[in-house]
Amino acid sequence: MSIDQGALEAVPVPTAQEVANLSGCDLVEVEQFYAGEVADQARRCRVATYTPALAAALVRRVQRAVAMSNLPLGVQIDEVGATRLGSTGPEVRRLEGPYRKVVVG
Length: 105
Prior knowledge:
- The chain is mostly helical.
- It has one domain (10-99).
- It has helices at residues 16-23, 27-44, 52-68, 90-96, and strands at 75-77, 82-84.
- The protein has a two-stranded antiparallel sheet with strand order 1-2.
- The longest helix is centred in the middle third of the chain and has 18 residues, at 27-44.
């Protein structure tokens, strides 16, 4: 699936404060993960202009990182058993999917 980069509205990368406001997380918690998630997103996605979908994915990436900080092994145990949580959520994969770099070989 290709995206016409010229047809997309460019938006700035959300700041840590904006991510904290949108996610409802504490700014101190957000700042612990913000730079790493921005760098990881830039490494994984190929895009000429930063789009609203990537901005939304960044907010979700940081929210997930903050939530996962309470589960250091990435395993959640409930009445059904142990569940391993993935590195990114389905919504992040959906939002970033069209921009993902494809690595071959």
